[in-house]
């Protein structure tokens, strides 16, 4: 199926809320209002409601296809409290009706697990697009494995999605309750991670910072090497080359060990530390993991014990460790090693944690996303997982537990529109349903 | 918008112009930093004058977009300006996940109450971002079922997690453990980031979700006029019969009916430990029964086949009723092969061939 191209997908002039994590979309969502519709005919109201809701719910799916999926039977569920069922057999609702009682006894039940009910009604009208949520591409998007519904569709088409262990290339596959779907981890990391170009600038700034001061030529080299390294792909430099580079940098650091620990020196050391980690991360690559963090810590200790730089080492020693951000942590570890050489248990623990973090989330220029991996901006504003899915993010898999249902005060279909608009849209489809 | 590259005749003069008046170029974006501004200009210089001093180093650090020789638009539309303004003021907190449920508020909304905190969509109060199980919670569930051998019903009731969810957690945990053992990479940074963004249930302290959901059958949504005597005790079972012959009373439809007995015992004053022991026993029994039923089904299917072992092959012969297999119109999806008089539509245009289930 050829996808429809839309000229202004995230336009600001005629805004439509879309199924994406785009920042323009976020703005459109924030300023969405229900217009005054009373001066429109009923047909016009329905048309508008249909148009705006379809702009969000599977806009890449053809209208004819959706019309065939549409069902006027909206499903709901009621939570039954076993304590109530144990206490009553149901006859109490009718007891005394013939002898003058006019109202049913007040039910003494509380919702189990539910925080609150917004209204006493069951919002059936929010459930129109429930059949759409059954589609594989929609479920992949809802499980936070793709940054837009169209991207989720592409993942299916490109063969990155498996259903119950079998590759499923049809984004229109309707999930059955109990189906387990998996998305290729690399694809998920790419879709949800920060773009690459955001981070490549950082080391260059460092390099320029160092270059602006003419005093230390060797540091410039080291920093420039580092910057160049960031931009290369991992394929181009093998293990040996990076190890050589590492040794050179270590020598540089050792030569200047007698002088004061200036800001520039710190930069160079930090870059070296990063490199050490990268190298070991590569050696202990994700496929084969011959070295645990303990061994690496030992090796690092051995290497860094050669560094004997005393000043400015005590500065971070007493500071609480958790409060330091990750980058500061690296520096801190370097400096602690310089001072005491990883004598105490606590210091070793810090280094172990840092290496563990590095192993989990390594710097790897060969990846199509920025490394170390970070979530893309504005992801958190769109991050929710509806209850009909159970997601395991570690393996990028999810189970479609059941069809979405409406409960008292809650509807499980994620829709940005209020009940009134969805009701109008429902009426539109009833006409042709 | 992709970077636009002008025609060759125009490019050099345009680039020259841009280079000459580089100080005058004003970035239209409110957020554009000075580094971006510089980057644009140096990139232009690099692309045209390759002999520039330190072009190599700077070039490597620039993205493709910055090579565009098209000057940026000088004027923002009002809407675009408002967008950037919003993005830098109220939209700024949306950029990174500083807290769980970092959801957008409607523009100009005064309502910052706790009630609207879990609303990802400002206009739809009927959709809430509901809490998810944490990684630790999944581990607890795995331990209690797989290592301690507790029945799923008991675990579900104790933590108030739906039975289907418990089963799903176990399925995926098994895969995760296998991957770990195989040394396959996991998406750990992604998982950590997502868990930071979502509301998390404290397992065992608060109920996670309703566990005894009953699907509202469409037969039960109608009003039925059913005359009965005043003196009669009209129970749920009678009501179910009145709605339809096949409608079951709620007591049987809930997912863990053993809980009703537990509650009855508690109401009768039985010691809690004793009652819970009984419940565990009943849950274990029902699980055994289910297993037996499944095993029987598989066995019966196997027994229905006639097996002929020739030493090299084992032929398995099944009795098949063709009419049942091909359906009333002879076009059932289950049917195999070509049938006389029935067009073979497999390759016909417009025929939907998406599988309906994967096993």
TrEMBL record, chain A:
Picking any one GO molecular function of the record gives:
structural constituent of ribosome
Q: What is the lineage of its organism?
A: Eukaryota, Fungi, Dikarya, Ascomycota, Pezizomycotina
Q: Where is this region: Disordered?
A: 91-113
Q: Which SUPFAM superfamilies match?
A: Alpha-L RNA-binding motif
Keywords from the UniProt entry: Mitochondrion, Ribonucleoprotein, Ribosomal protein, RNA-binding, rRNA-binding
Organism for this UniProt entry: Rhypophila decipiens
Task: Indicate where this protein resides in the cell.
Answer: Mitochondrion
One GO biological process term is:
ribosomal small subunit biogenesis
Per its UniProt record, what SMART domains does this chain match?
S4
Family designation: Belongs to the universal ribosomal protein uS4 family.
Q: What is this protein called?
A: Small ribosomal subunit protein uS4m
Which ranges carry the RNA-binding S4 domain? Answer: 134-197
Function noted in UniProt = Component of the mitochondrial ribosome (mitoribosome), a dedicated translation machinery responsible for the synthesis of mitochondrial genome-encoded proteins, including at least some of the essential transmembrane subunits of the mitochondrial respiratory chain. The mitoribosomes are attached to the mitochondrial inner membrane and translation products are cotranslationally integrated into the membrane.
Pfam families of this UniProt entry? S4
Q: Name one GO cellular component term.
A: mitochondrial small ribosomal subunit
Automatic annotation (TrEMBL), chain B:
Q: Where is this region: Disordered?
A: 45-80
Task: State the Gene Ontology terms under molecular function.
Answer: structural constituent of ribosome
InterPro entries per the record? Ribosomal_mS45
For bias kind Polar residues, which ranges apply?
A: 45-54
List this protein's GO terms for biological process.
Answer: mitochondrial translation
List, as start-end ranges, the regions of compositional bias called Low complexity: 55-74
Q: What Pfam families does this protein's entry cite?
A: Bot1p
Superkingdom per UniProt = Eukaryota
The cellular component terms of Gene Ontology attached to this UniProt record, alphabetical and capped at eight, are: mitochondrial small ribosomal subunit
Protein name, please?
Eukaryotic mitochondrial regulator protein-domain-containing protein
Provenance organism? Rhypophila decipiens
């Amino acid at each position: 199926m050829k996808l429809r191209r839309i000229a202004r997908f995230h336009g600001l002039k005629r805004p439509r809320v879309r199924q994406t994590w785009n920042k323009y979309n976020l703005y459109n969502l924030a300023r969405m209002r229900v217009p005054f519709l009373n001066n429109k005919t009923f047909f016009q109201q329905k048309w508008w409601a249909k148009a705006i809701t379809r702009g969000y719910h599977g806009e890449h799916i053809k209208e004819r296809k959706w019309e065939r999926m549409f069902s006027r039977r909206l499903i709901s569920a009621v939570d039954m409290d076993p304590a109530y069922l144990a206490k009553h057999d149901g006859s109490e609702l009718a007891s005394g009706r013939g002898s003058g009682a006019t109202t049913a006894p007040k039910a003494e039940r509380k919702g189990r697990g539910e925080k609150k009910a917004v209204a006493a009604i069951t919002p059936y009208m929010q459930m129109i697009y429930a059949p759409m949520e059954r589609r594989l591409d929609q479920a992949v998007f809802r499980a936070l494995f793709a940054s837009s519904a169209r991207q989720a569709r592409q993942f299916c088409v490109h063969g990155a999605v498996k259903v119950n262990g079998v590759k499923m290339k049809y984004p229109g596959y309707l999930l059955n309750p109990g189906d387990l779907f998996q998305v290729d981890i690399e694809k998920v990391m790419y879709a949800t991670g920060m773009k690459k170009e955001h981070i490549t600038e950082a080391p260059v700034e460092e390099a320029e910072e160092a270059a602006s001061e003419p005093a230390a030529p060797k540091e410039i080299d080291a920093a420039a090497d580092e910057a160049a390294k960031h931009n290369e792909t991992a394929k181009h430099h093998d293990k040996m080359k990076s190890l050589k580079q590492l040794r050179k940098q270590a020598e540089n650091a050792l030569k200047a060990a007698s002088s004061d620990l200036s800001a520039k020196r710190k930069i160079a050391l930090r870059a070296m530390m990063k490199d050490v980690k990268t190298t070991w991360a590569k050696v202990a690559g994700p496929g084969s993991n011959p070295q645990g963090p303990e061994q690496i810590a030992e090796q690092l200790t051995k290497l860094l014990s050669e560094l004997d730089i005393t000043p400015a080492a005590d500065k971070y020693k007493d500071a609480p460790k958790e409060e330091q951000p990750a980058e500061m942590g690296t520096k801190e570890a370097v400096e602690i090693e310089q001072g005491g050489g990883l004598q105490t248990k606590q210091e070793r623990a810090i280094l172990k944690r840092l290496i563990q973090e590095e192993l989990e989330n390594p710097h790897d220029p060969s990846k199509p996303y920025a490394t170390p991996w970070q979530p893309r901006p504005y992801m958190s504003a769109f991050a929710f997982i509806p209850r009909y899915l159970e997601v395991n993010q570690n393996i990028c898999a999810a189970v479609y537990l059941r069809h979405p249902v409406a409960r008292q005060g809650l509807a499980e279909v994620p829709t940005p529109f209020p009940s009134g608009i969805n009701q109008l849209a429902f009426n539109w489809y009833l006409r042709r349903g | 918008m992709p970077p636009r590259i002008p025609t060759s005749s125009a490019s050099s003069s345009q680039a020259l112009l841009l280079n000459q008046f580089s100080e005058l170029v004003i970035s239209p974006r409110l957020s554009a930093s000075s580094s971006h501004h510089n980057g644009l200009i140096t990139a232009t210089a690099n692309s045209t004058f390759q002999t520039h001093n330190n072009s190599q180093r700077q070039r490597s650090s620039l993205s493709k977009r910055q090579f565009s020789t098209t000057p940026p638009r000088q004027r923002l539309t009002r809407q675009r300006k408002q967008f950037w303004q919003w993005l830098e003021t109220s939209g700024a907190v949306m950029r990174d996940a500083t807290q769980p449920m970092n959801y957008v508020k409607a523009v100009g909304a005064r309502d910052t109450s706790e009630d609207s905190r879990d609303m990802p969509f400002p206009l739809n109060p009927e959709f809430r971002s509901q809490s998810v199980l944490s990684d630790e919670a999944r581990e607890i569930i795995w331990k209690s079922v797989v290592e301690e051998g507790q029945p799923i019903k008991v675990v579900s009731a104790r933590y108030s997690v739906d039975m289907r969810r418990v089963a799903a957690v176990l399925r995926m945990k098994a895969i995760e453990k296998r991957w770990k053992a195989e040394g396959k990479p996991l998406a750990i940074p992604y998982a950590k980031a997502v868990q930071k963004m979502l509301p998390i249930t404290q397992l065992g302290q608060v109920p996670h979700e309703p566990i005894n959901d009953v699907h509202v059958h469409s037969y039960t949504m109608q009003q039925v006029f059913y005359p009965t005597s005043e003196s009669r005790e009209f129970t749920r079972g009678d009501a179910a019969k009145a709605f339809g012959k096949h409608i079951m009373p709620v007591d049987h439809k809930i997912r863990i009916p053993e809980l009703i007995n537990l509650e009855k015992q508690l109401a009768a004053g039985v010691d809690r430990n004793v009652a819970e022991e009984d419940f565990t026993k009943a849950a274990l029994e029902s699980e055994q029964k289910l297993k037996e039923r499944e095993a029987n089904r598989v066995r019966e299917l196997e027994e229905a086949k006639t097996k002929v072992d020739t030493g090299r092959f084992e032929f398995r012969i099944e009795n098949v009723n063709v009419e049942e297999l091909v359906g009333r119109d002879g076009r059932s999806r289950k049917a195999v092969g070509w049938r006389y008089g029935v067009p073979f539509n497999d390759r016909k245009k417009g025929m939907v061939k998406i599988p309906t289930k994967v096993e």
